[in-house]
Design a protein that fits this description.
Elements lengths: L1 E5 L4 H12 L4 E5 L10 H6 L7 E3 L5 E3 L1 H9 L9 H31 L7 H22 L12 H10 L13 H11 L10
Parallel strand pairs: 1-2
Antiparallel strand pairs: 1-3, 3-4
Helix pairs in contact: 1-3, 1-6, 4-5, 4-6, 5-7
Length: 200
């Protein structure tokens, strides 16, 4: 059986959980506490030398890491990864956008607030994340005003990648009230019959 090493509150880990549920793929969840340094243990570093979660351990004991790479592996041959090269490239565009223009701001602001409890020494950093986080939301809103999903008419791993931290963006201080297309998209994603919530 597949094993997922992760923290249930982490959006990057949630991506993998959500994808496995969308595929009806059984798995074992192995909880990892990042605040206790469990990703730096000798055993964990054998699974991912970069010392980060999530990690997907395959049936043969080999491991995959980096959440969006894992999504591509899991979705291969499914309805969630288009076969058309142009559409597939657009999926990658959104995955790169998520890691470089979305996650560093929305996820990090949430981490400071939710995981760390907003320590005073990181308040300035937290506030600095807001501007670029809203920019990322603006980019998504523009696309979702044009198409129901990020890559056209079909739910894909681009949506999984960006749903993970967007649906909990308010936990990082972001107000989604001014983003009607994003809010409708969040409802659309959550309405999938095999959807599972982050805290489920």
């Amino acid at each position: 059986m597949l094993k997922v090493y992760g923290d249930y509150r982490s959006g990057n880990c949630y991506k993998i959980k959500l994808m496995l549920h969308l595929l009806s793929q059984p798995y074992e969840w192995v909880p990892i506490n990042i605040l206790r340094g469990e990703t730096r243990s000798e055993d964990f570093l054998k699974k991912n030398p970069n010392g980060k979660i999530p990690v997907l351990e395959l049936e043969d004991g080999s491991c995959l890491w980096e959440s969006n790479a894992i999504l591509n592996y899991l979705a291969e041959g499914s309805e969630f990864l288009p076969t058309d090269p142009r559409l597939r490239t657009q999926v990658l565009q959104w995955q790169f956008f998520e890691q470089y223009s979305h996650e560093p701001f929305i996820a990090v602001a949430r981490y400071i607030k939710v995981y760390l409890g907003m320590p005073e020494e990181r308040r300035e950093e937290y506030e600095a994340k807001q501007l670029d986080g809203y920019h990322a939301l603006n980019v998504m809103e523009q696309q979702l005003l044009r198409t129901p999903y990020l890559v056209g008419d079909h739910y894909s791993i681009a949506d999984v990648a960006l749903y993970a931290y967007t649906h909990v963006a308010e936990e990082g201080g972001f107000d989604l009230g001014g983003y009607p297309a994003i809010r409708q998209w969040l409802q659309r994603v959550a309405s999938h019959p095999r959807h599972v919530g982050m805290y489920d």
